[in-house]
Each structure stands twice: as structure tokens, then as C-alpha cells.
Design goal:
Distance between the termini: 49 Å
Number of strands: 10
Order of helices and strands: HEEEEEHEEEEHE
Helix content: 10-25%
Shape: globular
Radius of gyration: 18 Å
Largest sheet: 7 strands, antiparallel
Structural class: alpha+beta
Number of helices: 3
Strand order of the largest sheet: 3-4-5-9-8-7-6
């Protein structure tokens, strides 16, 4: 009986761990209305971005070691599609400090209206894995969710790709 209870306890604990991991990061924005889901990242406490007052497109920021997530909503040209926003945002990465050349940025479609640009940046100790999850909502806003993970093992890049493969940005 003790063995059966121990086994059952282990199964329940494993199931709870897996179901919590499956949920991951979920964040809803009210204006413009959209929902971000990143199953491979734990839930983070999101706060108004510290530079939001002077740069209103910098919306939210959250972090808990080793993860950081930032949400940006730059204004789009009227009627821009998620694909057009993703292309414009991905091209703009080349001008940002610390971003590698475009040939070292992996770009992919994650879903119908969600795209990603991913790259790694070497640090003094370890690597920073970066993913820019991209889309658009309402024909007026491009959406950029910058997720980053600091790791001491460059081999984490493969698991980082897997953690993000089901990420999405959806109108809410």
C-alpha cells in the first residue's frame, strides 16, 4: 500500500509539473487588445515599462532569472498585416545594439499570424538567447515581444527553439 501511494504521489507530482510547464507565460494587453502565450517560459510578473512615459510604444517588462520579457506596440502603417509588421520589425533588428548581422538571425513563422526572429549573443560568461515574437493587431499596431534567457551553456539554443515553437500573439 505504501508503495502504491508513493507511486501515485509521484504520478500526481509529475502531472502537476507538466501541466504547469505546459501553461507557461500568458499575458493579456487591454489596449490594443491581444494575448501573448509562450508555453516554454514561466509566468512572469509584468509591469509598465520604465520608459513608457516618454516612449509609449514600450509597454510592459517582466523578469525572473534567467528570463526577461518585454512587450512593445509600435504604431503600424494603416492596414499593415502581421506578416508586414513582422518583416519591418525583423529588418529593424539589424540597427539595434548587440544584435548580430541578419545572416545570424533565424526567422520563422510560428503560426498563421505569429512570427519569430531568434539569435544568441555571447556574454563574458555564457550566452543570452533572444527571441522577438512578432505580429500585428487591429491594422494599427505592430506587436513585438522580446523574450530573452541567459544561459551558461551555448548548447541551450536548441532547447530555446523548442521552448518557443508554440508561442503566439492573438487578438483578444
Amino acid at each position: 500500500m505504501k508503495l502504491a501511494l508513493h507511486f501515485l504521489g509521484t504520478v500526481v507530482l509529475l502531472y502537476a509539473s507538466l501541466s504547469c510547464r505546459a501553461e507557461g507565460f500568458v499575458f493579456e494587453v487591454d489596449s490594443p487588445r491581444f494575448k501573448i502565450t509562450i508555453p516554454g517560459i514561466p509566468q512572469l510578473r509584468m509591469e509598465v515599462h520604465p520608459q513608457n512615459a516618454s516612449q509609449p510604444h514600450l509597454r510592459f517588462l517582466g523578469s525572473a532569472d534567467p528570463y526577461t520579457v518585454a512587450v512593445y506596440t509600435p504604431t503600424a502603417v494603416e492596414g499593415m498585416t502581421p506578416l508586414e509588421c513582422a518583416g519591418a520589425l525583423a529588418r529593424s533588428l539589424a540597427a539595434r545594439p548587440g544584435t548580430p548581422p541578419p545572416s545570424q538571425v533565424l526567422k520563422a513563422r510560428l503560426g498563421k499570424d505569429t512570427f519569430v526572429a531568434m539569435y544568441a549573443v555571447s556574454l563574458a560568461v555564457g550566452v543570452q538567447l533572444n527571441a522577438h515574437i512578432l505580429s500585428a493587431v487591429g491594422g494599427r499596431y505592430c506587436i513585438e515581444v522580446h523574450a530573452a534567457k541567459v544561459s551558461i551553456d551555448e548548447e541551450d539554443l536548441a532547447s530555446w527553439v523548442t521552448e518557443l515553437e508554440n508561442a503566439s500573439i492573438e487578438p483578444n
